[in-house]
């Protein structure tokens, strides 16, 4: 059995309306360039009803990194940090609030833009998306795939909690798409010492054929 790492706490998050505004702004820019994007990670879970806050917005796009650069350079809405690109993930900050949008508070929201295949995302995102509250997101199964991948590599509390949230609330969707989950990641989660035997058996029926 594998214990999860309890030391990594969820940082303080900006207001949800600021995060939604930032996600919509970058998503619209990507669509204007004829690209596809999909939200993922903790922010996508928020849109699905999770109560766990997250400090940033994660998304994946099928645009090439060079195309993304052409979209963001010189944009007054954006702050581009010096340490902006790590392993095919581009980190930027989107200005939100008075002077930029209708949000009440001024917040620079972190948006991490990944390429397909990174962070447990599918190699092609076109058939792995769904519309959630007017925004494009990975579908439930592929959000779960990413969370299982994160849990397998770092075993943080927040990843465990997110996986359990999806299993409790989206059983039917997961059963329909579970063939896209990675077996080794599923087994590592099911072997967690934080699961009771009853929960382990219940989740195994959802996750495995």
Word description of this protein:
By secondary structure, the protein is of the alpha+beta class. It contains 8 helices and 8 strands; from the N terminus they run αβαβαββββββααααα. The strands form 2 sheets. Strands 1, 2, 3, 4, 5 and 6 form a 6-stranded mixed β-sheet that branches. A two-stranded antiparallel sheet has the order 7-8. Helix 4 runs antiparallel to helix 5, helix 4 crosses helix 6 and helix 4 packs across helix 7. The longest helix is centred in the N-terminal third of the chain and has 17 residues. The mean pLDDT is 91. It comes from Septoria linicola. InterPro entries: NT_sf (IPR043519).
Unreliable parts: none
- Could you give a short account of the major beta sheet? 6 strands, mixed
Number of domains: 2
- Provide the CATH topology of the largest domain: Beta Polymerase, domain 2
Helical amount: 40-55%
Strand content: 15-25%
| Secondary-structure arrangement, i.e. CATH architecture of the largest domain | 2-Layer Sandwich
CATH superfamily of the largest domain: Beta Polymerase, domain 2
Number of strands: 8
Shape: globular
The run of helices and strands is: HEHEHEEEEEEHHHHH
Radius of gyration: 17 Å
